[in-house]
């Protein structure tokens, strides 16, 4: 039983001090404070803070510029600029549109239709885009963002024709230009790119053009032989026709 | 000697409210078609683009839903221009077929002011359609005629 009792060291025993309350229900006085003692007043006078005096002859414009200079740039803008730069670098197709007055419902419909085709509709402020593309190779697209705009990003470049098809239905979106595979294209160039066949078809066309030179030579060499063979064919057919006609006449008789 | 009062009693609201004021008085009733032509990579296209945006707002479109606003994007760094093709009655009034603004060196407010000066004034005046009379108005009109009839009936 004795070893169950907790043994405490003698000096560790603590007790709360006796509390004596100064005020009881009375209202405290702050409106008519007592004049401080001279010494106390002296200390207070010495320790009063001294603020710099505001210049009396500053114009309104000066104070406004100072106020704006003191404003710190929001660091969130840097994060969004980084996001823009990321989108620009990782998308093969970037199309920039001028946006006329449009309701949110309509732009949402467009956004959904584009999203189904792996095209992402985004819009950022001019200052943020400026910060994102400054000192990069994308600086040339800056003049397109002076007015209301939107940007469409796509990680693959074969979607140009689908993009044009969808945005043709939207009269408020006006195509201004775009970047395809790190090449800046104007509106006409972008539309021509959409009309062009795919890479494989273009390669096939190139092969055909290359073969055409050799093929032309072969054709020229074989021209006489081919025409002779054709003439013989016609002659043979004519003879065969005559013989069948004769045999028909004989059977009739 | 007191100086007589000079200056404004109210402060101006700035360029934005000036644009808003001009926009309220834009009337496209006399216009058949508006073609806005600009090169997006050229300089000084901001005002043209802003004007195009303002023309597409619902209030302006409502003044004439039949008027088509077409934007023509070119790639040869031509200076921007805005063409208003007028309807027949407006053409007779103005003696021109279309009005063209070279908006390269104009800002948005000036464009709107010029538009109001030249285009909105050509809008044909609205025709008063048949007004639906309220009961009180009908009684007032018919009261003069039917008052004589009513009096003997009451007796």
Automatic annotation (TrEMBL), chain A:
<keyword id="KW-0809">Transit peptide</keyword>
<dbReference type="GO" id="GO:0005840">
    <property type="term" value="C:ribosome"/>
</dbReference>
<protein>
    <recommendedName>
        <fullName>Large ribosomal subunit protein uL10m</fullName>
    </recommendedName>
</protein>
<dbReference type="InterPro" id="IPR001790">
    <property type="entry name" value="Ribosomal_uL10"/>
</dbReference>
<comment type="similarity">
    <text>Belongs to the universal ribosomal protein uL10 family.</text>
</comment>
<keyword id="KW-0687">Ribonucleoprotein</keyword>
<keyword id="KW-0689">Ribosomal protein</keyword>
<keyword id="KW-0496">Mitochondrion</keyword>
<dbReference type="InterPro" id="IPR043141">
    <property type="entry name" value="Ribosomal_uL10-like_sf"/>
</dbReference>
<comment type="subunit">
    <text>Component of the mitochondrial ribosome large subunit (39S) which comprises a 16S rRNA and about 50 distinct proteins.</text>
</comment>
<dbReference type="Pfam" id="PF00466">
    <property type="entry name" value="Ribosomal_L10"/>
</dbReference>
<dbReference type="GO" id="GO:0005739">
    <property type="term" value="C:mitochondrion"/>
</dbReference>
<dbReference type="GO" id="GO:1990904">
    <property type="term" value="C:ribonucleoprotein complex"/>
</dbReference>
<dbReference type="InterPro" id="IPR047865">
    <property type="entry name" value="Ribosomal_uL10_bac_type"/>
</dbReference>
UniProtKB/TrEMBL annotation, chain B:
<keyword id="KW-0809">Transit peptide</keyword>
<dbReference type="InterPro" id="IPR019716">
    <property type="entry name" value="Ribosomal_mL53"/>
</dbReference>
<keyword id="KW-0689">Ribosomal protein</keyword>
<dbReference type="InterPro" id="IPR052473">
    <property type="entry name" value="mtLSU_mL53"/>
</dbReference>
<keyword id="KW-0496">Mitochondrion</keyword>
<dbReference type="GO" id="GO:0035167">
    <property type="term" value="P:larval lymph gland hemopoiesis"/>
</dbReference>
<dbReference type="Pfam" id="PF10780">
    <property type="entry name" value="MRP_L53"/>
</dbReference>
<feature type="region of interest" description="Disordered">
    <location>
        <begin position="135"/>
        <end position="155"/>
    </location>
</feature>
<protein>
    <recommendedName>
        <fullName>Large ribosomal subunit protein mL53</fullName>
    </recommendedName>
</protein>
<dbReference type="GO" id="GO:0005762">
    <property type="term" value="C:mitochondrial large ribosomal subunit"/>
</dbReference>
<comment type="similarity">
    <text>Belongs to the mitochondrion-specific ribosomal protein mL53 family.</text>
</comment>
<keyword id="KW-0687">Ribonucleoprotein</keyword>
